[in-house]
Amino acid sequence: MNLLRKLWNNLHLFMALPAILLFGLFFIYPLAQGIGISLTDSNGMAPPRFIGLQNFVDFFHDARAKKDVYNTVFFAIGSAPLLNVFGFLYALILDRPFKGKGFVRAVVYLPAVISPLIMGYVWYFILQPDRGFLYHLLASLHLGTGGSDWLGNANSALIVLVFINVWQFVGMTMIIYLAGLQSIPKELYEAGEIDGAGYLKSLWYITIPMVVQSIKINVVTNIIGSLSVFEVIVALTDGGPGYSTESLSIYILRMLYGSFTGYSTAVAMILFVMIIIPVFLFMRYINKKEFEM
Fold this sequence. Notes:
Layout: H1 2-9, H2 11-38, H3 54-60, H4 63-94, H5 101-109, H6 116-126, H7 133-140, H8 157-182, H9 186-194, H10 199-210, H11 212-227, H12 231-236, H13 248-257, H14 261-292
Helix pairs in contact: 2-14, 3-14, 4-8, 4-11, 8-11, 11-14, 13-14
Membrane topology: Multi-pass membrane protein
Subcellular location: Cell membrane
InterPro entries: ABC_transporter_permease (IPR051393), MetI-like (IPR000515), MetI-like_sf (IPR035906)
């Protein structure tokens, strides 16, 4: 009888066991393996030799790696906030009743379901100087030739990439915010109107606190996606001109293909930390604010 009672009291542990095993198999074990490889001079062929933190030291002394860190952080700082701001604004607009609302939602969301690699190639042909669609459009409207090589200019290429990334994935952010907005009880807004709250006060004191879960999902996923950006850069600039738009994800892949397995794994560990830190700080901040609400 006591044994049955103990089993019943610990049933939740048995129920969680499959998830714990999968988490350990597909996250903890690969992470431990990665940390181990990052401390060696592995090239994927010869037996690896332990070299301690030398790969990390080499990374912080590599000018190209520093440039890639800058590119990655710049892209994330540009993309993540804009995705959330415009995604939330779109959601507010498309949550209101008007004719054709479903069609507009579909148009905004559609780019998000297309592969970033394919969408990158589409934009590549649109932005081609002298022969791209934008060139001919501006010429036909007598607004100039549009012949500037925005993707071939180191000063503008990264900004163009941020714009394209925001344009493509703002629909995904919008859908999550829409789900949050539609779950807010209408009675809260009616009570706010009775108390004399205008639109902005209702937005600040009712809407935003009630969509905090959507904010969490969007901010975290956009931070992760922006810091690990890969496909859109490969399709549009391939990291060029030079290394002016190369991200850490592309750098990792190129080092891996260059038989620097240990070094590329060390860079992957650094990128992992770069992602974990802002996510952790944001979640700590938003959970504290949510508790205060």
